[in-house]
Amino acid sequence: MFWISCPFCGHSFHIKRDTMLIHGMDEGIEKRLADGSYFTHECQHCKKLFYMMHPFLFRDPDRKYVLILSNQESFNNLPVDEQVVVCDRVPDFLLAYKIFSQGADARVVLRVKKQLEARYEGSVVFDSYDCVKNILWFEIDKQMVAVCLDGCHNKGCKK
Description:
Layout: E1 2-5, E2 12-15, E3 20-22, H1 27-35, E4 40-42, E5 49-51, E6 56-60, E7 65-69, E8 83-87, H2 90-101, H3 106-119, E9 124-130, E10 135-140, E11 143-148
Parallel strand pairs: 3-6, 7-8
Antiparallel strand pairs: 1-2, 4-5, 6-7, 9-10, 10-11
């Protein structure tokens, strides 16, 4: 159980949440991580949506990565042969989950996202990675934009 306070009105409440998930254990939670709703809560007092920050660890032993949401700086007993990503903000954790769960290269996604942010005035949101066609999809001002990697010739493709 976690003690959470609404950042808008200050209403406080207890809520039960999982703190760890291994890939394949709970498809429902993984679906909510993918769509960004797992940490979202509607305040029962003011009815505004906000992210609930609480410690969470996600591990995919097949793809060899661990994602951690925490304000803590160091951790013990983590697998030495797996990539570990620590995030201290919910949006960063959700972005990391979206990138790693689709098998995309985080360095490439973040580099391309930064380039698109410099080129476009609106918000740039990573949507998905097509590993067959090697295409990164981003949402820019409610428009889907494809960024083709390594020799993809569908430069004008739209999702």
